Amino acid sequence: xxxxxxxxxxxxxxxxxxxxxxxxxxxxxxxxxxxxxxxxxxxxxxxxxxxxxxxxxxxxxxxxxxxxxxxxxxxxxxxxxxxxxxxxxxxxxxxxxxxxxxxxxxxxxxxxxxxxxxxxxxx
Length: 123
Prior knowledge:
Layout: E1 19-21, E2 28-30, E3 35-42, E4 48-55, E5 58-63, E6 67-81, E7 86-90, E8 94-97, E9 102-118
Antiparallel strand pairs: 1-3, 2-5, 3-4, 4-9, 5-9, 6-7, 6-8, 6-9
């Protein structure tokens, strides 16, 4: 199939309803945050995904088996490593979580973000 302007994915042109989920019970540390994910794009190798994610407040263990770019559209999150060092991100912030990161995700205020995820072939 040729790559044309029709293959360009504009998230805002055809918004998808986010599929509901929660962090698994064994990973939850605070709350039971309801989340939603709408994946807008997956490449032909199935290694690259891009979409929208939202979450209610809560905290859970995070183990990243992928590289993830995040852009916060709304809200406030704190990401901490296993040593307890943390960074806070709010509306307008963009950041990258590298493959192998271990720590916690904490949603302090209802949050919406765009994401781009790349899963390496060999881990």
